[in-house]
Amino acid sequence: MLDRYNAFLYRDKRASGGSGALAGVTVGVKANIAVAGMPFHAGIGAWEDRRADRDAEVVRCLREAGAIITGMLNMEEGALGAKTDNPHFGAVQNPHRDRYSPGGSSGGSGAAVAAALCDIALGTDTMGSVRIPAAHCGVYGFKPATDRVSQDGLISADPALDAIGPLARDLDMLERAARVISDFGEGDVNGRGATLIDHGVDVDPSVQSAFAVALELLAGVAKHRLDHPLSRIRFAGFIGVSKAMAADLADVPVSDHLAKLLTYGPRRSAGDWADDTAILAQTQDTVRKIIGSAGFLLLPTVPNPPFPHKEREPAAQADFTCLANIAGCPAISIPAGWTDDNLPVGLQIIGSPGAEAGLFRIARQLDDTLGAYRDLTQHKGA
């Protein structure tokens, strides 16, 4: 184990950077993103000895900006799940509470940033896998719009939903990384924002309390309903991911847990899959229309706070985050508050492609007032 959180699986002791916008900035990379000469296994034990023969496009961009690529980060097996208790590489510990989940599937990325093991971490977000660990680890995470960041060099879960995104300990560093790896639009947010009601998600009181404060700060936020409960929308997205991964991993040995998850998509009847795709298309259209009229969509990131590894992973963790992937929109998760026993919770802002600058402006407005980020290194040694 390279650190006490089991966040890093490999470190390059000879790593160095150059000059540019990210000169001197250290970056850890999720193990499903190619870094030349480093492990490239997507958390799958059968691929443990694989090494990437070249850099992914986003890694190349980071190097050109002067960043120091320090190593590879632990993750969920195959990037499917939101707990990061990997059967081959071990569980990642939440830096805010030992034996607690950091979220997933980019759990190593969230933990490494929160513990100041690197300045920036790259994760991948299929239905929330950057923003969920950002919320659970009390840091900041950005999911670019699907078509505004390259998937070159990525072992994908579902190309229709995937986006490589950064995590950081402040919004300035997050934006610096976002501008380097993605097509970052300078458009502003035109509208006072919206949120969802009657969404059918059971939200923990600590999350609801923190979110209510954010709503008060943005007076006049519009209330909208979707055509389907979020759990049904998330399940339709999961079926698509399961189908895509089952095809890609058909001949690859995986754990019993992942193997079971990969049966859901292929065994779905044609009629049920038609219903799923219709729900996804309708949700994409509705979310884009809401954001187009309101400017942005404000939601909790995860309905529950971090939980112990010994507990079963809550199924609803991606209920809110899946919307940005289904709609193909950019989204930011920021720290929103804390539970009574000092565990972090987050909120997310979903915006329009091309208005990333405006999305960050709203995030800063909320972040400056909420002031919910806590520097872990000031409270306990990393």
How would you describe this structure to a colleague?
With 382 residues, this protein is α+β, with helices and mostly antiparallel strands. The chain is built from eleven helices and 13 strands. Helices cover 32% and strands 16% of the residues. Strand 2 (26-30), helix 1 and strand 3 form a beta-alpha-beta unit. The chain is globular. The mean pLDDT is 97.
Summarize the structure.
The protein is of the alpha+beta class and 382 residues long. It has eleven helices and 13 strands. It is globular.
State the end-to-end distance: 15 Å
Number of helices: 11
Spatial arrangement of strands, main beta sheet: 1-3-2-6-8-7-12-13-11
* Radius of gyration, taken over Cα atoms and rounded to an integer in Å: 19 Å
Which regions contain 5 or more consecutive residues with pLDDT less than 50? none
Q: Structural class of the helix and strand makeup?
A: alpha+beta
Using DSSP, what is the number of strands? 13
**Fraction of residues in helices?**
25-40%
**Beta-strand content:** 15-25%
Overall shape: it is globular
Largest sheet: 9 strands, mixed
Mean pLDDT: 97
H/E element string?
Answer: EEHEEEHEHEEHEHEHHHEHEEHH
Protein traits:
382 residues; nine-stranded mixed sheet; two-stranded antiparallel ribbon; 11 helices
